[in-house]
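Lecture notes, structural biology module. Today: joint structure prediction for complexes of two components.
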Amino acid sequence: MKKILNNPEAYVDEMLEGLTAAHPDVYRIVGEDRRAVARGTPGPEGKVGIVSGGGSGHLPVFTGYVGTGLLDACAIGDVFASPTADQMADSIRAADRGAGVLRLYGNYGGDVMNFDMAGDIVEMDEIETTTVLLADDVASAPPAEAEKRRGVAGMVYAFKIAGAAAEAGLDLSEVTRVAQKTADAVRSVGAALSSCTVPQAGKPTFEIGVDEMEMGMGIHGEPGVWRDKLRPADAIAEEMMDRLLSDVEIGKGDRVSILVNSLGATPHEELYILYRIVSKRLSDVGAEIVMPLVGRYATSMEMTGVSFTLLKLDAELEGYLTAPCHCAFWTVS
Amino acid sequence: MKKILNNPEAYVDEMLEGLTAAHPDVYRIVGEDRRAVARGTPGPEGKVGIVSGGGSGHLPVFTGYVGTGLLDACAIGDVFASPTADQMADSIRAADRGAGVLRLYGNYGGDVMNFDMAGDIVEMDEIETTTVLLADDVASAPPAEAEKRRGVAGMVYAFKIAGAAAEAGLDLSEVTRVAQKTADAVRSVGAALSSCTVPQAGKPTFEIGVDEMEMGMGIHGEPGVWRDKLRPADAIAEEMMDRLLSDVEIGKGDRVSILVNSLGATPHEELYILYRIVSKRLSDVGAEIVMPLVGRYATSMEMTGVSFTLLKLDAELEGYLTAPCHCAFWTVS
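The predicted structure, tokenised, for the full assembly:
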């Protein structure tokens, strides 16, 4: 196991200790069992709060996106494991500035169950909550069953846009509307070349041949749509763009953003090789790319692979996408 | 080879094509054979230019740091191979705004030879040049032979600080003085757990056992100071801090910055586990940490491993370190 760690059981707690030691201005640990993170300085009184949460091992997702113009707090589970309802309730309480809290997270069974329970818990504190789920992975279910899709890197756009809307002073129903519009407008697809290792498991999550790849694989190793020999970069990018563009209508004059995301080990060099095709395909349909993101925005530790996330914009979404934000992983100024 | 590419021979050119397609506001390809990159919009007339250069495969180093408050241009070789003198001359010409150009790069034989020749070439264009070499890797030679040391991630600090000094309007001799002061104040050490694969070679640069690590290994696989079983994170961090703190005097009241850098595959989670010890060790000697950097600032594609870079600050260096900058990989606002 080529990982730099101490006790695998302490992986997440030590990570949080280091994260908050490095960036005390941005992050602060809260909650009885120290498994929620809030903004170093809370947002202003009367601002709508936004929380997310989920398993660890995906930095910057989820915790890393706590910051100005982004999330107000986040609940953190063990690697690839849901936080508890109590941890999620801790994050909601930390995010509350008297104007209600949006729960904004990915469509995974355990997270949904626990965030629902957390909403019930904080009702006793008279905190109003709403929910928007990300279900952007087009490879995980067909369009007719879109509600079954997994949430993956699309949440990066949702955090950014909803975060900017809350920062601009919109109320809870309006921030929720903007977040839902983003969730509806975003599509992702991934391809994996190798697994990562969950520290407590001590061995790779899945096996894959040294010359193989899997199209459509999920970020925890969920099965994809095919496994075959590793293909050239351009063929991979073309197929991924085919899958995105067949799931959402993008045409002449549309404005879009695209995230070309490393799942961990795949270097920036290779993301940019893929970007050539991404850019060409969007140009071919007459779309204009706004603020493309290329890098490690949603990972599975040291997994080798990439995901593409396509967001169809309107003027409102574009305004919030390009607004300033700041966390330890992402600054837009 | 778990790499996403097309023709290995085209790896660098396709990477540059994607980089400039994604960020045309930041980067622009220049030079006859398109192997130099300059700022999307040149710096103001009369600003000192700063260039760097070296082999590809280290993004964001070197090319990624072309931007506002950073480098003005950069020459790019093949993966782990020096650019030619002509490519370096192209970068110098692109960086020249009439006030001379600082060559700021790492201490590798091929780069030094070619940048010296490039300086001779641009003398005919009447461009004045100066040189500052980074030689920050303490594992590569003892203090008595410090001039033989390799340049590694310390150049990130040098680009940032010299870039801010040039942006502030200092003249060539002053920018050169500030860059040299940074080079003198910075120390790095790395540890590798696995190799990367140079595309044109098609196999890992070096072999290392599945349970082994190498302390002090260079970013191209240059031999380190020991190879042994993989140690716990805290032991690795303690030894790396020992090596840095025995090479430069840091004491009570000193202000420092520290970069905890992934060589590629090592995830953010593990960098933050290491940061706990980094922070404790600096606190133990009474030093205060300013603007710590944790992430992928200087990589070897998908190599697994980390490096620490420690910079001893004074008021001048701290002012330039914390000044605004912008490129596709790093925004300080």
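Point to remember: Chain B is about 30% helix and 25% strand.
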